[in-house]
Specification:
Blueprint lengths: L1 H5 L19 H15 L4 E5 L6 H12 L4 E7 L9 H8 L10 H14 L3 E7 L5 H12 L10 E6 L2 H6 L5 H6 E6 L5 H15 L12 H11 L3 H17 L7 H11 L7 H15 L1
Parallel strand pairs: 1-4, 1-5, 2-3, 3-4
Helix pairs in contact: 2-3, 4-5, 9-10, 10-11, 10-12, 11-12, 11-13
Length: 291
C-alpha cells in the first residue's frame, strides 16, 4: 500500500550500502578515482576519512566492486565486528582464504600466501572499514602488516576507511610511523545543496515503477527543507526522506510537503508529536486492512 501510493516498487531510502544506488557526486567520484590511482601505482597505505553518515561505507563497497574487475585479491574487514589487535593477523589471513591451524603463525602463513599471489602477478588489497575502531594498538598492528614487501613491491596494500577520529589517532606521537606510511589521504564531504535535491530524485527514480515519474514526489520547497535539515549528509538525507514519505502517506498526500519534512526532522531530533510517524503509519495500515 505504502509503495503503491507513491508509484514505487522498492523503498528508495534504505540505509543499506548498495553500490547499485551509488550517486556519482563529484566528490565521491574523486575519492574513488583517487584510491584506484593510488592502488594502481603500488602505494602501500591509503586513507579515506569523513564525518559520520557521509557515505564512507557505500564508497567502500563501490571500491570493492570496482576492484573485482582487476587482477587483485581483495580482503574486506569491517572492524566493528570485534577484532582485537592480537588476532588481527589471523582475521586478515582468514579474509584472504588462508587456513591457519590452532596455534599457527598467522602472519607467516599470510605472508606465504601473499608472496605466492605476487609471483602470479596478482596484487593483494586489504580494505578496512571503520578503521578508527582499531584504536592505537590495532593501527600499530596494521602497520606491521604493511611491512610485508619484496625489494620492489608491497605484498599487501591497505585502504583505511574511517571517521575523523582516525586522523586524531594518527596525529599522536606513538603512531607517527603509521602516519608516515600513508601516501594518499582523501576525505568525503557532505553533498552540496543542489546535489541533495538531485540525489533524492535519483533514488526515487531508481525505485519507481516502470512508466512512473517520481520527479515531483517531493515538492521543491520540501526538498529545500530536507536540504537544510540534513546538512548534506547522505545518511540524514535517507532518514529524513523516509520519515517524510511516511508522514505524507499518513496524511494521504500524493506529495511530500515541507510540513512532512519538518515532522520528520522533529522525530529525528527525538521530539515526535503524539504516537510518532511510524505509529501513525501502522494505525493507517490497520484501518485500511479492516475495510
Amino acid at each position: 500500500m505504502f509503495l503503491n501510493h507513491f508509484g514505487l516498487q522498492a523503498y528508495p531510502f534504505s540505509l543499506a550500502p548498495d553500490p547499485a544506488f551509488f550517486y556519482p557526486a563529484e566528490r565521491a567520484r574523486a575519492v574513488l578515482d583517487g584510491v584506484a590511482f593510488a592502488l594502481a601505482r603500488g602505494d602501500g597505505v591509503v586513507k579515506v576519512v569523513g564525518e559520520v553518515g557521509s557515505g564512507k561505507t557505500l564508497l567502500c563497497r563501490c571500491l570493492l566492486e570496482r576492484l573485482k574487475t582487476e587482477p587483485i585479491n581483495i580482503a574486506y574487514v569491517p572492524v566493528p565486528l570485534g577484532i582485537s589487535p592480537a588476532n588481527l593477523a589471523l582475521t586478515v589471513a582468514s579474509a584472504f582464504g588462508c587456513r591457519v591451524p590452532k596455534g599457527g603463525d598467522a602472519l607467516a602463513i599470510l605472508e606465504k600466501r601473499l608472496r605466492a599471489q605476487h609471483t602470479k602477478k596478482r596484487r593483494n588489497v586489504l580494505v578496512v572499514d571503520e578503521a578508527q575502531a582499531l584504536g592505537a594498538a590495532g593501527l600499530e598492528a596494521i602497520r606491521l602488516l604493511s611491512n610485508l614487501e619484496t625489494s620492489r613491491d608491497k605484498l599487501l596494500q591497505l585502504v583505511l576507511f574511517g571517521q575523523q577520529e582516525l586522523d586524531l589517532l594518527l596525529a599522536t606521537h606513538g603512531l607517527r610511523q603509521m602516519a608516515q606510511r600513508i601516501t594518499f589521504g582523501l576525505a568525503t564531504e557532505p553533498l552540496p545543496d543542489d546535489a541533495v535535491k538531485d540525489y533524492v530524485r535519483f533514488r526515487l527514480a531508481r525505485c519507481a515503477k516502470p512508466g512512473t515519474w517520481t520527479g515531483g514526489l517531493f515538492t521543491e520547497s520540501a526538498l529545500g527543507a530536507l536540504t537544510r535539515a540534513s546538512r548534506g549528509l547522505p545518511r540524514l538525507v535517507h532518514t529524513l526522506a523516509d520519515k517524510a514519505l511516511i508522514a505524507a502517506y499518513a496524511d494521504k498526500s500524493p506529495q511530500v510537503l515541507p510540513r512532512h519534512v519538518r515532522a520528520a526532522a522533529r522525530e529525528v531530533r527525538g521530539v515526535p508529536r503524539g504516537v510518532g510517524l511510524l505509529g501513525r503509519l501502522v494505525r493507517l495500515i490497520v484501518r485500511v486492512g479492516r475495510r
